[in-house]
Each structure stands twice: as C-alpha cells, then as structure tokens.
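REQUEST FORM: STRUCTURE PREDICTION
Request ID: SP-0412
Submitted by: Lab K.M.
Chain count: 1
Length (residues): 342
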Amino acid sequence: MTTMERKNIKTLGLLSGGLDSHIAVKLMLKLGYDVTVLNFMSPFCTCTKKSDGCKSAAHMIANECGLKIKTIFMGNEYLEMLRTPKYGYGSGMNPCIDCRIMMFRQTKKVMEEMGAKFVFTGEVVSQRPMSQMRDRLKKIEKESGMEGLIVRPLSAAVMEPTIPETMGWIDRDEMLKISGRSRKPQIEIGRELGIKKEMLCSSGGCLLTDGHFAVKMKDMLEHTETADVKDARLLRLGRHFRLNEECKIIVGRNDKENIRLSRMTKDADTLIRINNYPGPDVILKGKAANGVRELAARIAARYASAPKDAEVEVEFTAHGMEPKKLTVTALSDDAIEPLRII
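STATUS: Completed
RESULT:
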C-alpha cells in the first residue's frame, strides 16, 4: 500500500504522553496514515515527570505533530470499577486489566464515531506483567469488543496478525518487533524519530501501583461509600490519619498544600486551623463528634510551630455552622503513630 493510499485510512491512536505511545504516533505518521489521537486521564495518572500530568504531555505531543486530540476523563465511574475490579489488582491497588478494558470500550465508541479503520497503541508485548502479556492483551481485546482491531506498532512484527494486516491496511515488515521490559530499543528508536531528549525516558505511570498511595486508596474505599474524584485527588496531599471508622483527617505539610487543602474542602467537611501559631490546614472528613474534634485538634497542634507542651488554640469551621474553638496541647508522636494511614 502506498503512502497516498494510507492517507485515506483513518486511524485512532491512544496517546498517554509517555515515550512508547509517542513512538507509535510518530511511526504511524511516518507511514502516512490519517492519525487522530485519544488521551485518557484519571485521578491517578502520572504520565510524565516533565509536565503537569498526562493531558499536558499528550497535548504537547499532539500539537508538535499537528494532530487533533480528544481527551476522555475517567472519573467517578473509574472509582466504582476500582472497588471491585473483575480481574483484581496488581502489586498495589492497580486494576490494570479492568482499566484497559474500560479504556478500550470508550475507544471503540470514538473509533466508530470518527469512522476510523483501527486503533493503535504504544503497548509493548511482555513489558508490563499485569496488562501486556500476550494472554492478557487478548483478554482485554475480547472483553472490550476490540478483537483484532488493535495494532501495536512497537510489537506487531512478533504478534499474531490483526484485521488491519489481513485486510492489507498495514504491512508487517514496517512494524517493529520490540518485546520485554528493557526500554533501550525505544530510547534508540525515539532518537532516530527525532523525539526530544527530555522525552526519551518518559513513560506512563499510575499512582495506584505505588504501595503508599495504595494504602490510602484502600482505606478511602473501605470507609467512604460516597467517595468521588475530589476525595481521590486529596489522597495526593498531606499526612492522613484514621481517627475512627467514620472519620479521618488530612494534615497539610507545607504552605502550598495548605492552600490546596482549603480549596478542596467540601460542604460536609470541617476545616481546622491553628490560631495562635503557624500551623497546618487540616481537613476533617466524617462526623466531628466532641472526642474526635479534640483528637484532631491535638494532632493539628503537633504539626504547628509551637513550643512543646504549649497550649494551642484550634478553630473548626464547617459549612453552615458557627466556628468552634478548642485549646489543646499537642498529641505525642507515640500516640499519633497508630492513627497514621500512611
């Protein structure tokens, strides 16, 4: 098939902003296909270290390549899936197989709406043990209704033929044969394709694979039936303490986090601040009964810039209620530690 003929073939590429999907896009453009890219975001995305999350990295690449890009945010429906994923979790709270199935179901809709012939991704066979082994790639395709319609240009030469190949829309000899976990081939190919140096080592990422973050996520899902995207984003901030089955607090670690915490307080939350010393902003989530209120105040006092054993005035503010104040001394580290989620 000639380059001119390929220009009439619409394709939809999944672009995370990482190196592998960047290479896949560059390769398909080089071969002459009519490419549109699709970017998925979630509250747990950490696609690049050099930018503000996946969307900005993906959009930067799309703009550089002159491509149309559509972004889909997987929010509360993603959290519901996360509670009981059909295929379980990886090393943390990462439901990689269920996540990919959800993404490809959405992708199929976009593909059909735009009249694309097939979808391509930056996936590399055997690179990620949870979702990129051959049997799991097949399972994801089947469950999402995308069997045979997903081309993986970085590994297609060592995989079974797809429908686009059997239809003559792609040529196996022009696909790559990368497999396994090493990233050296991608870095070298990235250089050859003119990908900027700062992007060569970037890769997609997910906070749910992080053990510390997974502990906080598990705690939130176990104790909060109505948890939403805002609650999930709060897991990125502060120190987290579980005071009882119905109540937790999040303690800001610096001025930047204090500002973000105060902005992310919901109507049902209580905002806690220190009045007579510099200290953290604290969000109390759950029922603020008297005993809980004093415990939260003493933890807040522990992280204030107050002398040891000093009396600290702590103010509680909640939506639609008059502020309340308590004077307390800081809780000891030994007493705090059992309450720490992470």
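NOTES: The chain has two domains: 3-207, 237-339.
Reviewed by: T.R.
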